[in-house]
Amino acid sequence: MTWTEVLGRVSFCNCDPVYNGISDNWKIFSAPPSWLCGHVIRRDCVTAPIPTADYARFKDELFLLPDLAIISRGDTGSVLVFGNRPLESMRDIAVPTDSSSSKQLLDWILEERGLDPRRVEMAPDLERMLSECDGALMIGDRALLESIANPKLVIMDLGAEWTSMTGLPMVFGVFAARKDTDISVLAKAHSDMLYQLDRFDNDLTWRLQVITNASISTGLSETRLDNYYRSEVWNRLDEDALRGLDMYLKQVCGCSEGAEWANLD
Question: In the chain, where are the structural domains located?
Answer without folding.
Answer: 3-72+170-252, 79-166
